[in-house]
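Please, structure for the following, as tokens.
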Amino acid sequence: MLASVPSLESLPLRHRGTIAAIAWDRLAAPEARRLRELGFDEGVNVEVLHRATLGRGPIACRIGRMTVALRRSVAAAITVSLG
């Protein structure tokens, strides 16, 4: 059984998860389009590689073979499952 993590923002570093859902309605149209173009969708594996240490900076994550930086507000709209 897969354990749910509230969002990509809270996924522990170096742990892999699977995107369970994306709250598209919480994202601005350009952000949603960018995520789709980068391959973010349900069922895709993702891993958090780094979090900015100061303030609420971006999160670096791996999706496929790409490393992508996301705003924390965008990462918070992505629900993941651990497996």
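The two ends are 7 Å apart (CA to CA). DSSP finds two helices and six strands in the chain.
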